[in-house]
Amino acid sequence: xxxxxxxxxxxxxxxxxxxxxxxxxxxxxxxxxxxxxxxxxxxxxxxxxxxxxxxxxxxxxxxxxxxxxxxxxxxxxxxxxxxxxxxxxxxxxxxxxxxxxxxxxxxxxxxxxxxxxxxxxxxxxxxxxxxxxxxxxxxxxxxxxxxxxxxxxxxxxxxxxxxxxxxxxxxxxxxxxxxxxxxxxxxxxxxxxxxxxxxxxxxxxxxxxxxxxxxxxxxxxxxxxxxxxxxxxxxxxxxxxxxxxxxxxxxxxxxxxxxxxxxxxxxxxxxxxxxxxxxxxxxxxxxxxxxxxxxxxxxxxxxxxxxxxxxxxxxxxxxxxxxxxx
Length: 326
Description:
The protein is an alpha/beta fold. The chain has helices at 19-22, 37-44, 59-64, 83-88, 101-117, 119-127, 159-170, 184-189, 195-201, 221-225, 244-253, 292-310; strands at residues 2-5, 26-29, 49-52, 70-73, 92-94, 151-155, 174-178, 191-192, 204-207, 231-235, 256-261, 281-283. The strands form 2 sheets. Strands 8-7-6-9-10-11-12 form a 7-stranded parallel sheet, sandwiched between helices.
């Protein structure tokens, strides 16, 4: 069996091992592959199995790679694969449905705490000599915010939303939730409310929902106007949930006090993104998912996906092909 990994670097920059996949056959690992069909086709060649993270697998690629029978996405989101066409051609597509629940929830809180305390800034100030030269025994350059007693509203209350909610509760916050369905586990953490109530009552709004047509651009001028003055927005879900110019305007006017973002609409970020020049906007380069422990879970699940496919009983299938190529 020939196996190709098209863009393995972000999953494994060197601190993990591909050996478990190598045991299945001839493995070729590319750190990065240009997002061009011709080069993707060339690199897949006559491989039967392809692993991809963000490198797209289009209809043209599927047609050109005659032996391709199994695509495994090294992530949860699989919109980079033409899954409908893969199903038509009998190509099985699997993903990793859950690997970073705790990591992503932790990172949402990290963004919030950085906004509340600016720990990195104040540490840098100390190292630059400012504390040594200060006329008082302490100083701070930003308002410091205590979260206990405040309300966090989480839009999208699945596994990750609940993980964030548990941490918020532990810090003394009241948690509101808005999701597609209520669960007993969720009710133990939060009070379920409609979207408008959440926007109106929350001091902190956190986005943990997937990108669907009805969630794209959900944070916009209209929804922001229904939020509290001085609200904090956290988004480490999908950048396209936010109309970025509208958020930038709200940050610059002070309607939104601060935003903590690990995702933007186009990644890597473009120089003309209005959020780069917006006030009180913390942006990190889509790293919520990336602790080693979470990436190891991706690796382990991907190995299980391939083993299940080889055994004839594929798991985590996102396109349910009627029959796979042999």
